[in-house]
Amino acid sequence: MPDRSDGGASGDWAQLRDRRMSEPGAEQAYEAARLAFELGAAVRRLREDRGWTQKQLAQSAAMTQSAVARLEAGGTTPTLPVLNRIAQALDADLAVRITPRSDVA
């Protein structure tokens, strides 16, 4: 087993991650990616609960199957009109909220 005490591969990754996260805008980009992933996962769960394929959702929401796949993978952030079409296709309500953080006075 390699000795990682000399800053081997795992040390290099940790240093790279720390360096990248300290760059301007990195935290915001990470948060946007997290939100896109969670949104995609929610759409996928609703679609699967309905027993639909990506193609069926795409047809019902006037989209392409590849657009549904990208959304579900967190690779894109759809516009509100697209989200509304997806919600309608899935017989779901679209709720967009901005809520105060608990640490804000």
UniProtKB/TrEMBL annotation:
Region of interest: Disordered: 1-25
PANTHER family listed in its UniProt record: HTH-TYPE TRANSCRIPTIONAL REGULATOR, METHYLPHOSPHONATE SYNTHASE
Record-linked SUPFAM superfamilies: lambda repressor-like DNA-binding domains
Residue intervals of the HTH cro/C1-type domain: 43-97
The protein's name in its UniProt record: Multiprotein-bridging factor 1 family protein
Record keywords: DNA-binding
SMART domains cross-referenced by the UniProt entry: HTH_XRE
PROSITE patterns: HTH_CROC1
Organism: Spongisporangium articulatum
Family annotation (InterPro entries): Cro/C1-type_HTH (IPR001387), Lambda_DNA-bd_dom_sf (IPR010982), TransReg_Diox_bact_type (IPR050807)
Domain of life: Bacteria
Transmembrane regions listed in the UniProt entry: none
Coiled coil regions, renumbered to chain: none
Pfam families membership: HTH_31 (PF13560)
